[in-house]
Q: What sequence folds into this?
């Protein structure tokens, strides 16, 4: 091997190792982002289906955060009435069954009244019971 070969190969080898490390890091990050996006989508779809059972209730936002080994789903719902803790518990159980992982659901109810000149579009109603909403 020529005396200058070491001077040429060493920087290229270092660059190749750094490139491989970046490739691994970006691949792991990409897989984590895709998994979180799929989880968020499944949670949003499940909650949207359940909220459609109450006239005027709509899921506005779903944000996921890791917290002590579990995922916390912060959900904002625009609704004519507040979502009760009991209802959140049933929704949380449903979400856990659907996504198959530990999820802690936090629901923020944003009270909204929609009206026309004829009156309110959605009257206050009771939330669907466990028997009618969860198969």
A:
């Amino acid at each position: 091997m020529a005396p200058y070969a070491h001077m040429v190969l060493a920087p290229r080898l270092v660059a190749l190792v750094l490139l491989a490390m970046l490739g691994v890091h970006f691949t792991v990050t990409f897989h984590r982002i895709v998994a979180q996006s799929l989880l968020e989508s499944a949670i949003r779809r499940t909650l949207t289906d359940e909220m459609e059972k109450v006239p005027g209730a709509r899921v506005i936002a779903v944000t996921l955060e890791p917290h002590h080994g579990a995922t916390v789903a912060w959900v904002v719902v625009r609704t004519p009435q507040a979502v009760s803790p009991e209802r959140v518990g049933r929704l949380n159980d449903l979400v856990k069954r659907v996504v198959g992982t530990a999820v802690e659901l936090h629901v923020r109810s944003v009270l909204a009244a929609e009206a026309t000149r004829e009156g309110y579009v959605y009257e206050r109603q009771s939330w669907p019971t466990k028997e009618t909403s969860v198969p």
Observations:
- The domain at 5-133 is CATH 3.30.300.70 (GMP Synthetase; Chain A, domain 3).
- The mean pLDDT is 87.
- Helices lie at 5-51, 85-99, 130-133.
